[in-house]
Amino acid sequence: MLELTPEEQEMLDGKKSEAVQKAMEIVVALANIYGAKNLVPVKSVNVSGVSYKNLGDAGIDFLNEWAEMGAKVTVPTTLNPAGMDLLDWREQGIPEEFAEKQGEVIEAFARMGIPKTCTCTPYLIGNLPGFGEHIAWGESSAVCFANSVLGARTNREGGPSALAAAVCGRTGNFGYHLDEKRKANVLVNVNCPVEKGSDFGALGHIIGKQLKNDVPLFHGIKEASQVQLKALGASLAAWGGVALYHVEGITPEAREKGMLAEGAKVISVDSLEEGYKAMNADTDEVDFVGIGCPHASVGEIEKVAGLVKGKKLKAVLWVTTARATKEKVPAAVKTIKEAGGLVLADSCVVVSPVKSIGYKHLATNSGKMAYYSPNYCGVTVRYGTMEECIQAAIDGRWPK
Ligand code: F3S
Fold first, then answer.
1. Is 117 a domain residue?
2. First to last CA, the chain
């Protein structure tokens, strides 16, 4: 039975405002469905469902209704990627009509007090939750990173539930907010080297395919950078709906005793070949290369710049990132541009109108992009290391 504090009851009764009441109604309904005993205050929110490609006109109407009701966020809130770079969308090839609609979406969020910052790596640009903090984030890869790498606590919020949490500052205390749901119920013995960035996405594919909302604990991964953990989480989330994983000796909660639940299933991985094979189409043609899923870090952008320096690209190259990250590396952005590539802020291959731009054959180093792009963007996919992807951008075909 859900118990509310007197203040929460007042919010639900409409004593604060109509918008807060509406937000509480959503949060309380979800808390009741999932059997929460109480609500918890959230420190931050990341709202997904920002691209006009996903929202459509019905989504714009919903957001405008909330803005007109006077809804305002009460905790630090960031937005997931939009369907275009909010400044350089013409260069990106976005149709005018789409840009107009996307602009309406962003304006509606801005009226609710949300900065025009669209990224799936809010943790790289200042929305960095602390260990054990309760947050309400949407965006599967960001949720996986926040839960697993930072040890913060969030369920996979949908667009409306995250917005509601941002307005009333609360979420239901269920799922990954609770200690018992954070224990691993699957032990993954990794018996092969996992070293390159793309190895982590391939591992995410292999394990994700075998899980459904489970919590895996990886044993046998010797080292992993934050960028590699971001790739692993994004791939696990896309292929298996995973919202939390642990890596022995590396992620914070894996260090705690008793993190493996009794009776946990055991899986072994002896080779990553199956993951690479499954994410590679039977064509060498490449006319489009996407790097930065999840959004690229400073180091990743600089690495791309090093690989394209002095070259002329035959395929279109998009490096997607947060605007604040892009602003930190002007020299690398210039180098990539000189080679013919683009560093795009606010945006993402999957949620952009790629089909209407007309690209056909994508190369990527992201397991998540490999999952979504065939259906969402109508492209074939080649998957591999960043070096292979950039070579494909230079040659206009996948390297032998
Ligand atoms: Fe981010 Fe888009 Fe990939 S939201 S995780 S760049 S699919």
1. yes
2. 61
| Residues 314-347: tens digit of each pLDDT | 999 999 999 999 999 999 999 999 999 999 999 9
Q: Are residues 13 and 66 in the same domain?
A: yes
pLDDT in tens, 385-394: 999 999 999 9
Question: Can you read off the two tokens belonging to residue 51?
Answer: 């691209």
Assess if residue 400 is contained within a domain.
Answer: no
> What domain range includes position 31?
6-177
- Binding site membership of 203 for ligand 1 (Cβ less than 6 Å): no
Ligand 1 in contact with 322 (CB < 6 A)? no
Is residue 62 in a domain?
yes
Sequence-separated (6 or more) residues with CB below 8 Å from residue 329: 298, 301, 302, 305
For 374, residues 6+ apart whose C-beta sits below 8 A from its C-beta are: 380, 381
How many whole angstroms separate alpha carbon 347 and alpha carbon 352?
7
Q: Do 251 and 317 share a domain, yes or no?
A: no
The CATH number linked to 390 is 3.30.499.10
If asked whether residues 297 and 374 sit together in one domain, one would say: yes
Per-residue pLDDT, averaged over 109-137, amounts to 96
For ligand 1, say whether the CB of 120 is within 6 Å of any of its atoms. Answer: yes
Q: Which pLDDT score, from 0 to 100, does residue 22 have? A: 97
Spacing, Cα 2 to ligand 1 middle (Å): 35
Domain limit, last residue, from 224, 259, 276: 276
Residues 245 and 216: beta-carbon distance below 8 Å: yes
Candidate from 350, 375, 377, 379 with most ligand 1 atoms within 8 A of CB, to mutate: 350
Q: At 143, is the secondary structure helix, strand, or coil?
A: helix
Whether the pLDDT of residue 257 is over 80: the answer is: no
Q: Ligand 1, residues 369, 376, 377, 379: which to mutate, most atoms within 8 A of Cβ?
A: 369
* pTM beyond cutoff 0.85: yes
Confidence label for 75 from pLDDT (cuts 50, 70 and 90): very high
Mutate to test the pocket of ligand 1, among 118, 120, 123, 139 (most ligand atoms within 8 A of CB): 120
Neighbours of 266 (CB within 10 A): 10
298 shares its domain with 230: no
Give how many domains the chain has, as a whole number: 3
Task: Decide whether any atom of ligand 1 lies within 6 Å of the 303 Cβ.
Answer: no
In short, whether 296's Cβ falls inside 6 Å of ligand 1 is no
Task: Answer yes or no: do 247 and 214 share one domain.
Answer: yes
